[in-house]
């Protein structure tokens, strides 16, 4: 992208601290958190570390699977692990509460995954503790699709495209900025 999309101020730029990363942390502030940061020698480390303040974090390098393994390891002793991607600015505390309600209703026996209003699967995803060991087998940048396929799944519909809208490309960033400027 040419810039750190997680640490860049989101429009309308009312404060330099309104970023994808700070929104993600705020949405799950009522939970025990572990924020994955790049290694300290990474060019984005300093800005991201400053934005999360005192939130617990782990520095991970390598493919996405390394981050997932670290999170699963940090979650031992908990009933579940919520994977929330920080480049999804529409996810709110209310969305996370919806996932947690379904998780508790099913007594932690199923993976709970957000989907958008058209049924497309997305994030966040809440994994029950019986899945934690399966994270060790993950490799590369493919995420936890193999784990999701092996366990019971409950989907939670989030309004609009909150569960599937992310800022993965310069075009998505520009579209997000343009729509925010019009509101």
From TrEMBL:
Domain named MobA-like NTP transferase is located at 1-151
Keyword annotations from UniProtKB, A to Z = Magnesium, Nucleotidyltransferase, Transferase
- The yes or no answer to whether the keyword Ligase is present is no
Q: What positions belong to coiled-coil segments?
A: none
Task: Give any GO molecular function from the UniProt entry.
Answer: nucleotidyltransferase activity
Protein name, as recorded = CTP:molybdopterin cytidylyltransferase
Q: What organism does the record attribute this protein to?
A: Celeribacter marinus
Q: What is the lineage of its organism?
A: Bacteria, Pseudomonadati, Pseudomonadota, Alphaproteobacteria, Rhodobacterales
């Amino acid at each position: 992208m040419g810039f750190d999309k997680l640490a860049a101020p989101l429009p309308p730029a009312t404060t330099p601290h309104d970023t994808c990363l700070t929104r993600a942390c705020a949405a799950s502030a009522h939970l025990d958190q572990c924020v994955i940061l790049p290694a300290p020698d990474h060019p984005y480390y300093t800005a991201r570390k400053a934005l999360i303040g005192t939130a617990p974090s782990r520095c991970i390098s390598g493919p996405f699977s390394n981050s997932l393994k670290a999170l699963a390891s940090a979650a031992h002793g908990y009933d579940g692990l919520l994977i929330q991607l920080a480049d999804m600015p529409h996810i709110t505390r209310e969305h996370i509460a919806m996932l947690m309600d379904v998780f508790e209703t099913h007594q932690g026996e199923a993976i709970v995954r957000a989907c958008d209003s058209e049924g497309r699967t997305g994030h966040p995803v809440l994994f029950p503790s019986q899945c934690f060991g399966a994270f060790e087998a993950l490799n590369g940048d493919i995420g936890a699709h193999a784990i999701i396929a092996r366990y019971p799944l409950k989907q939670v519909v989030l309004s609009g495209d909150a569960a599937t809208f992310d800022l993965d490309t310069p075009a998505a960033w520009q579209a997000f900025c343009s729509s925010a400027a019009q509101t």
